[in-house]
Amino acid sequence: MEEGSVKGDIHDVVVVGGGATGLACARVLAKGGKRVALLERESRVGGNISTRCDGGWQTEIGPNTLIMKPPLYRLLEEMDLLGEAQSANPDAQKRFVAMDGAPVALPTHPLRSLNNALIGREGWSQIVREPFVKKSRGAEESLAGFVERRLGRRVLERMVDPFVSGVYAGDPQRLSAQAAMPRLVAIEQEYGSLIRGGLTKLWQSRSAPSELPAEWRGKLVSFPTGLERLAERLGEEIKTHGGEIICDCDIVSLEKTEDHWQVTDSTGRCFRTRELVLAVSAPVVVTLLAPLDASLTVPLEEIAYPPVNAVALGFRREDVTHALDGFGVLIPSIEKRRTLGALFSSTIFEGRAPDGHCLINAFIGGRRQPEAAEGSDAEQVRQVLYDLRDLLGIRGDPVWQQVSRWPRAIPQYELGHLDRIKRLDAALARHEGLSLVGNWRDGIAVGDCLENGRKLGERLAAEG
Fold this sequence. Notes:
Elements: E1 11-16, H1 20-31, E2 36-39, E3 51-54, E4 57-60, E5 66-67, H2 70-78, E6 86-87, E7 95-99, E8 102-105, H3 120-127, H4 143-151, H5 153-167, H6 177-180, H7 182-191, H8 194-207, E9 220-222, H9 228-240, E10 244-246, E11 251-256, E12 261-265, E13 270-278, H10 282-289, H11 294-301, E14 308-316, E15 328-330, E16 339-343, H12 345-348, E17 357-365, H13 377-392, E18 400-406, H14 417-428, E19 434-436, H15 446-463
Parallel strand pairs: 1-2, 1-13, 2-10, 7-15, 13-19
Antiparallel strand pairs: 3-4, 5-9, 6-9, 7-8, 11-12, 12-13, 14-17, 14-18, 15-16, 16-17
C-alpha cells in the first residue's frame, strides 16, 4: 500500500475536508509547527465556497458574502487580505420582502418601522406587549413558537419566515430556537424581553471600544475575484507554513490502531496520523464512521439536508424595471411561490455583470418544498422567472443563465439538534484522537466555520 505521508511515517494531524472549517483548522496547525495534511475529495479547496466566471458574469455557487466581525477582521489582517477585501455597495443595505405580489423594503431605522406595511397594526399591537411577555421555562421551543409567542404571528409570517428561508432554506416550525438562534434565546433569558435586551446591547456596543475600525464595522465583504479568493489564500498559508494539501483524495476507509489513525483513499494511498479531524458534512461523516461506531453516526443521520438550487439570471438592465436598489428580495411562504428569494448580485458588488446588464441570483427548493428543486435546468429557470417577473418588473428573457445544484445544501438545526450534538459528543469522547467539526454544528455561516476551525486547530496545537 502506498504511503501518503511525504514528511515521515506519521502526521501530527490529518484534516479531511477542505472547506472553510478544515482550511482554518489546518492553517492554525501548520502555523503552530504541526505536521499536518489536508485531504480534499475535489480538485480544489473551498468546499461550498465556489466562484464561477463566464465572460463578464461572475457568480457565487454557495455563500455570497461575509459579515465583517472581529474574528474575520483578524484573520484577513493576518493573511494580508484586508487590502483585497471588497465592501458591499451602500445601496445593498436595503432588504426587500415580497408582500401581496410587490417588494416592500424592510425598515432600516426604528422610526421608519412605525408605518411599515410588513409590520402593520397587527404587528405593532403585539410588539408593544413584548416586554411584558413571560420568558419561556421550557427546555426547547421551535423558532416559530418562540417568535410568535414574543412578537406575534404577523412578524413571524412577514419577517422571520422569509429570513429563515434566506439563511437556512428552512422551516421555522421545525427549527430549534435554541440551536438556530441561540443569541435571541439568550437575550430573552437574560433580560426577559427582546426589546429591552436589544436596546441594552445596542447601548453597550456603542459605549464600549470597538474591536473593528469604523470603516469595517458590520460591513458585508467579498473580493473582486469572488469569495473563492479566501479559500485560495487559506490554502497558500497552509503550504507556506509547511502543511500539505492533497486534492482529488477521496477517503474510503478509516481505521484506529493502538497509537494512531489510518486513513485510506480510493487509490490505495494510506495516511497515518496521531490526530484525525473530519471537517466534512454530516452524511460524509456517517459514511466514514459507520463501520467504526454506530453511536457516532445515529445522531448525525437525524440531521436533514434539503436540496437547494442557485439559479443565476443575467438581464439587460433596461429589461428589469425594479431599481434593484438593495441586497435582494425574500419571499415568505404565505406568498405561495416556489422561489425562496433572490439576491441583486450586481448591486451588492461591482464587477458581477457586464456593463449595461444586471445579475440576479435566485434560490429554489429548501426544507418546505424540496420537490421544487427537481426538474431540468430549463424548468428551474422558468419557475424562477414566473415567480420574479411581477415582483421585479422583468420584461425580457435572460441573456445569460446558470443553474447550480446542491442536493444536500444546508444542515437544518431542527428540534432536538442540541441533544443530537450532546449524544454525539458523548460517543466521541470514547475515541481518542478523533475530532468532528463542520457547519452542522455551532453555526452554518462561513464566519462561524472559520472561527470553529481556528478554535479546534488551536486546541489540537496546544495538546501535543
